[in-house]
Amino acid sequence: MQVYYAINQLFDALRPMGFTDPDLAERPFNAFLFNPDIESMDNAFYESDTINFTTYSPNEMNMARDNLTIWHELGHGVMDRLMGEKLDLADTGGLSEGMADFVAQLVVEGSEFGRDFLGRSDQRINNQTGFYLTNEVHDDGEAYGGTMKAFLDAAIARD
């Protein structure tokens, strides 16, 4: 139920921002809520129009219950749809992670209207990393996501 709600909230937030192309915005996403692959344990990931949630250790949170994680994984799908066949031309690791964080941030801003909430300051997108690339996709993504968030914050401040 949580994943269904979060997917709809993502589209509801992006539609007014111009994400209306039928090939991009109306093609459904799928969700695999129990991927038993032991190598992916304690994780969520996106692949081929599907967000996947794995099995979790007793002390780990079920990421299918976390909207930010769901929106981040869907952000990979949004980027895939926008880039199409040109996806291999980009830094698909770091750029994809940063843009997935940015899509999640767009949904947060569209639904929270700048209000604070528990965990907001802990998001990876809140950083001043610059381009200290480590070849680890999540680290590299901080530079892309942080830059896009700076643009978003400036645009919000202008309004």
TrEMBL record:
SUPFAM superfamilies: Metalloproteases ('zincins'), catalytic domain (SSF55486). It comes from the Bacteria. This is Uncharacterized protein.
